[in-house]
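Thread: "does anyone have the structure for this chain?"

Original post by V.I.:
We have the sequence but no experimental structure in hand. Need at least a predicted one for the grant figures.
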Amino acid sequence: MTKRAAEHGKSCIIIGAGPGIGEALALAFADEGYDIALVARNIAKFTEFLLEISKRGRRARAFSADGGDDAAVREAIAKAQHELGPCEVLIYNAASGMRSKPTQLKTPALIDEFRVNVVGALVAAQCVADGMKSRRRGTILFTGGSFAYEPAAEYSSLSLGKAALRNLTFSLAQELGAFDVHVATVTVYGFVQRGTHFDPQRIAHSFVQLHHQPKGHFDVEKVYK
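Reply from O.Q.:
Generated one for you, tokens below.
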């Protein structure tokens, strides 16, 4: 076991940690020396995956929460920090996107998806912001999408959500950057698929690159295409 693997105390919390980008992020940041908290609606599926992380010399825990449930998100983050230590890296990867054109989009559905796509990201950031500000370090990363630039009529709700999430990223970066906290988004400009340029592991590497940017050279967005 390496010295890095023997050290504990650095935690990475991933909200919306499912197959694909979420799990790739968990492995990538475990390899960077972070203990991993996975937050998702269904955590029973993580049994074997948690063991895979532990084999890399990191602690790993799973916590149940829906990104659209403010109280559940706050509780999951509080539990994660209690068990794994202060959050050094927060990644919000949760998204909800049903097919619906603007003229067919129902208001309740739009509000429900907006809570997952945007409000959950804000709530999560609020949960870790004070600690990061006091330590004058930390990284908050969001999984963005091309719909922020090129909205699709068939996915009008998700298009609105990704545009708002990008806006949130920039406003948070303005506020928290003054405290040396790095806030950024990886805008994924394509369909995630293993074995392609849009392989989750390749995309996860972009998150790691943003995290490692030195103070004074923080990018707010990396467009992955």
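V.I.: this helps a lot. Residues 3-224 form a domain with the Rossmann fold fold (CATH 3.40.50.720).
O.Q.: and The chain has one domain: 3-224.
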